[in-house]
Amino acid sequence: MRMSERKDLIIPPASRLAEGKAEFTGDVVISDHSSMSMDVSTEGRIFAGQGVSMKGGLSAVGDIVIDRSSSVEGDVTSEGSVFAGERVHISGKVKARDLDVASEVEIDGGFDVKGWINVRSPVPLVIQFFIVLMELLRQGRSDEVERILEELEEMQEIQVNEGYAFLPSGSRIGDELRTKGGVRVGDRSHVPSIAAGDWVRVGLAAEVQGPIASGGDTTLAEGVLVHGDVEAQGRLIIGPDVRVGGSLRAASVTMARDSVVTGEIVAPGGLKFTDPPKAEIEERLGKFEVGMEAVSEMLQ
Q1: Domain chopping of the chain, boundaries
Q2: Which of 77, 196, 263, 289 has its CA 20 to 30 A from that of 70?
Q3: pLDDT in tens, 194-229
Q4: Per-residue pLDDT, 260
Q5: Three-class SS of residue 263?
């Protein structure tokens, strides 16, 4: 996956972002010039791009990679290795198995490293790379140069595990999830309010601790709980057993009959109610009949 090719903010299933903490189970990718105002912990790895501002600590079972000109206001703890690029500033302490740092890296709280510590050459990597390529060309080894460039292009891709969290370039996570693209919240996740320039999709039994605003369509799956208004520039689709503690405003609204909205509904394009699937109706009737049989036996 290339950081520059993704535009949508992804929160994987069973994540929890509340009370100043963001807890994940898979890899976390924070793209260039994004902001994270929470302590981040995960059972996977953390990749932070260039110019990222993290107003909280980082903790991972896997490796932590922080690209150049980024800052971390807290401790950085990894059971694996920590890699810090040029001009990275860490206000807390680094605890890791191994530590690899470039030039002009500042670690205010010191470090506790069990394995090796590598301080990279102050000569910029791009200059070293250029010198190597020029020498190969001087030797007439153009095929070797082409091979290196192809491998370098492949290295730009980050191989992440399934169920990863992703913050696109320029996005922010703190009191809200804010991005210019779309937002996808996984099943059973707990997140703050959402402000998306495009679509929003909230998964099964997820909880949004605040309002939702989207520049496109918005979908709330079954069992979603929203503590606030929901506003969509496009269509708003609400599944069964959804609870919205506020008003709805959208171009059009389609919602299940058993969902509840405490505020007003504004939908210039119309409001449509849907019934639960036939199989669900039959299941409910079956439970009702069983209950009635039990009541009859009690009365006899």
Answers
A1: 3-121, 175-278
A2: 196
A3: 999 999 999 999 999 999 999 999 999 999 999 999
A4: 95
A5: coil
